[in-house]
Amino acid sequence: MRPAGALHHKYMDKISKTSRRAEKIFNFCLLLQRESDSPNRRMANKEHLYGRTPDELAALCGELGMPRFAAKQLARWLYVRHEEDPLKMSDIAAAHRATLAERFAPALSAPVRVSESADGTKKYLFRTHQGAYVESAYIPDGDRATLCISSQAGCRMGCRFCATGRQGLQHSLSAAEILNQIVSLPERDRLTNVVFMGMGEPLDNTDEVLRALEIITAPWGFGWSPTRVTLSTSGVVPQLRRFLENSKVHLAVSLHNPFSEERAEIMPVERAWPIAEVASILREYDFTHQRRVSFEYIVMSGLNDTPRHIRGLCRLLDGIKCRINLIRFHKIPGSPYFSPDEAAMIRFRDALTARGIQTTIRVSRGEDIQAACGLLSTSETGED
Prior knowledge:
Blueprint: H1 4-45, H2 54-64, H3 70-80, H4 94-103, E1 113-116, E2 122-127, E3 133-141, E4 144-148, E5 152-154, H5 163-166, E6 169-172, H6 175-183, E7 193-196, H7 206-217, E8 229-233, H8 237-246, E9 250-254, H9 260-266, H10 269-272, H11 275-282, E10 293-299, H12 307-316, E11 323-328, H13 342-354, E12 358-361
Parallel strand pairs: 4-7, 7-8, 8-9, 9-10, 10-11, 11-12
Antiparallel strand pairs: 1-2, 2-3, 3-4, 5-6
């Protein structure tokens, strides 16, 4: 029989060997994790070429000692060919390609999830560079195909009838992240229109939105006509003139109630920038030619669909060549509001039309996948 001390040393030796083995396994796993994470961290710290204008690309070329004409070459690769890997830009000097590849990381990425509605609408989920998520909605309709894109991850406007507003603002998107929703869309070549009506307030992210609009509509960019693009705003007055002066795309104003106190109850933005001030600014601009302005009006039963509201709308919009789009309210959890029936929507439309305001009822699309107006949100899925 072995002495107790010998048995003790034997078992302690086994425990020690097991501990060392476990430590080696742990360190090996940690090394693998670091090797896996480090490229991502390095990539996250890199800049992006995609989303830069020719002037910005020209400044970059000067900084890197590249010829000035290389800016046009870069723009063509980025926005005509949608190629952002510098190593594949064959008409740029090899040394400059290597320099660009070392400094810049890809900005474009495929959607991480898609949901499809019974009516053909598709909702795409995109991950941002900061790890948040945004949604966009692809809406096919005969010969037309519209993409509703986001300008922010979340929103800080806090509209009571909007699911996005409930989740608050995570961050504003870069121009590259805005454009990625278009460029990385599987149906990109079928698109006829783009509307900035997804998550976020575009004029709360004016710099990046204007940069994205320039790239979409410029001859050196996507080359789209401005009439194919619409920007929707709740009425951020300090940025409204800047948008109207620097872009020719259509404008849609989220109205939803003509009376200031009532509008403030459902749209806190009214307290900062009254809708009457928005209307006053719009009267200074000519919307009788190609550029159009419309007013979005989510109809909530008994709240903003009375004869009094019809008269208020006529007074508010007097002198503005415009159209009103009526939108049926889409129920969100915990909301105290209700949608009117179809007959009430038609009566409201006809009453406004009879008073000389062109009024249409927007057909709801994608409601079964939470892609309809006011329903886009990433907070319910844990992806916020």
